[in-house]
Amino acid sequence: MNDRAGHRAYGSANADELWKQARRVQADLLDLRDALGETVSIGETLLRSRLRTQPYTTLVTAAALGYVLGGGLPRIALTNLLGVGGRMASGILLTRLVGTLSRLSNDR
To answer: Strands, DSSP E only, in the chain?
Structure first.
C-alpha cells in the first residue's frame, strides 16, 4: 500500500512539473508570436520603403526570389549561390564590424 501511495505522490510531482513546463512553453510561444508579428511589421515597412525609393530593384529581387523558391534553379546551383552569397555577406559584415571597432577605439 505504501508503494502505491509513493508512486501516486511521485506521479503527481511529475504531473506538476509537466504542467509547469507546459506553461513555460506556452509563454515562450506567445513571446515568439509577438516577436514574429513585430518582425513581419518591420519587414513590411522596409519593403514599402524600398518599393518607393527603388521600385525596379525591389521588383526584380522579388521576382528572382520567387523563381528560386519556386524551384526554378537546380539544387546544386542554389547551393553554390547561397554559399557564395553567405561568404560575401560575412565579408561585408566583418568589414563593417572592424570599421566600427576601429572608430570606437579611435574615439577613446
So the answer is: none
Q: What is the pLDDT along the chain (108 residues), one digit of tens a residue?
A: 445 555 555 567 788 888 888 889 999 999 999 898 898 889 889 888 888 998 888 888 888 888 877 777 787 887 888 888 888 888 888 888 888 877 777 776
Which residues, 6 or more positions from 50, have their beta carbon under 8 angstroms from its beta carbon?
57, 58
Burial of residue 18 (CB within 10 Å: 0-12, 13-18, 19+) is exposed
Tell me 70's DSSP state.
Answer: T
Q: Are 20 and 12 in contact (CB under 8 A)?
A: no
Handedness of CA 34, 38, 39, 44 (dihedral sign): positive
CA distance 55 to 47: 10
What does pTM read for this prediction?
A: 0.43
